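G., the chain you wanted modeled:
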Amino acid sequence: MFVRILLIALGVLSIGRVHAQEENIGKFLKQLRQEKLDSTIEKTSFYKNKKLKQRRVTYHSHYYVFEIARDEYFRRTSFSVEERFNRKGEIVEKDSLLPREMGWCIRKKFVNGKATERRLYYKGEHLAGKSTFKDCLCASYNDSIPQSIPARTTAPPQQGEKYYDVWTVGGTSFLRFGSSRLQRRYDDVWLASRPGYSAVEDLKLATIVQRRRFIEITIKHRPSDKIVCRLRLKYTNPVFVKYFQQADSVLGTVADNRKKIGFVVDKLLPNIIVYMPSLIVDYSGPKEKGKYILNADFERIMPEPVRDFRVLSQPGRNYLWVCRGKCGLYTAKGKNIIPPKHDWAEARGAFLKVKTDGKYACYDYDGNIVIPYAEDYDAFTVSHNIAVCSSREYRGEGHSGAFYVNLITKDTLKATWGFPFEYNFARASLNDGYGLMNTKGEWVIDPNPAIQYLNVTSDSLVLIELNNPAFELVSKDDIQYRHQRYNLKLPDSLTNRAKTYARFGNTPPKKYHYVLYNLKSKTADTIAVNLKVLDGLLDYNISLQEKHFTNGFIRVHVTGSPPWFYTFCSSRGELVNISHRYTNAKSPMNERKQAIVARKKVITVKGVEKEEEFWGVIDSAGNEIIPCDFLSYYPNEYGYIMWDGHRYSLINFCGEYLFSDMSSPMMISYAIQSAENPFTR
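Predicted structure as tokens:
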């Protein structure tokens, strides 16, 4: 059917004279559901003898992609007829240009006013061998339908080229050479399933060139062809000699040297890993007893094989953490810095956390002990060049104690309790008061007993949970009890002292319990928890569920009794005032200030009741744009594709149905394409 309609549309362009096309213009408008053209533009040019040289008539019309007449769905389209004449005023060529979204052009050539040749063009390319419009239009229509994404394919390497993949593990990048077999094994899916491994970048090529005294391996970044590095393997290198002797036994001593060198390359490269950008090579042959550490010229940095090693990078310098029986630190040239008598090490900033016989110490890269092995702390972590130590000094009265050591200035800040640094700040407690310190060891939020908890984001915003001032602090036998999160549970020994915990008068417990503090501007916004769903609820707690704000909002988890739910908090300290308890907030707030949320409902399936999550969409004001009546969703440029368990619908960002009762998301894609290009209907 669509082919017939397309042929009708094409018929508009098949009339020689512009003025004879009124009937066909009507068919063009019918496709757009328009009654008349919006405009017609005619441009002409003439020879010096005043004969017509060229005439181009363009027909413009406007339409809406969907029935909803709104600006974001407004489109413009046009088709043109261009005629070219010789100096006698006879037509010699005529182009009929269909609407540009179709990409078709029909070019006719004329002799004595009669068409003698017709050519078909699609997106500027001449389609030779196509005899009918039907073949071309069907091919064009089918090609334009979105298909499933094909598997990644890469052209095979040419002679003198090898594949290599780029891996990233724990922040260290290295490349590994391979073959088509290795390519299939180390594909994106395989690597993504490996804990700690990032997905492989697009497959790249390395060029191997045989020089007079060495093999040169040039590694380029495609498609820019920028040279990343060069490796050189001399023919006198023991590694090369070993593989060359193997080539003699396989290919024969009379074989051409070029073939033997090619054999060496094929056998050697899969056994090496090149660490970037230090150009330190990890070589482990099939019969070797360990790993050899080589430089970019394949020369040994360490004379003997090692069990394992890591490349540690500092500004301007590279180091090796080498393990045989025990481990030690070496320069990139193999000079020992920290003797090999340790169990393991973690690289933290400009320092190393080293474990030896179950005890910990902190070293710098010059081999100096910054924090010695000691008995007054259990362990420590290093971040932002500050060590956070768990101290024995404060033990007693249920407190473990902690202290922060600035490894650069050696300044020490004691605390009762503390966390490692995150986003340049660390949460810590001192004398029953929580606070926040920066990487200089300074308190940016002074410890205060009124602070119950701190939650820092990467946006330098802190959610501060304050103790409820409506409840008293009680001490008994040197143990302090404080009401937390509006949920009071009295120990049996204090049941007779319950009046001590009585809430003062009618103090509203939901007011001024949380503060959003900006560490950059030093300003604070009190969060007034005025949620409709909290009416009559005195027991709740708010916590952030993300590490940063997205489009000015962050997901918030509200716990308490009745059960927990989700909402959003703005960077101005305003909670989104929702009307329902959403059990899930699937997405962050998008650029349209909308988010996917879910509510649990009880449904009956084959006579059995069960609880299911139904998805919907809310805006930043808490309004339900799309009610939570759907079992799944797919974001779309026009809104959301929603599935109710039976059929699919496309609902726009205002909650209006654009398409409904579709059998699959693919059918909605077809319908969108047909709406965007009315000439494929």
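The CA atoms of residues 189 and 545 lie 28 Å apart.

Shout if anything looks off.
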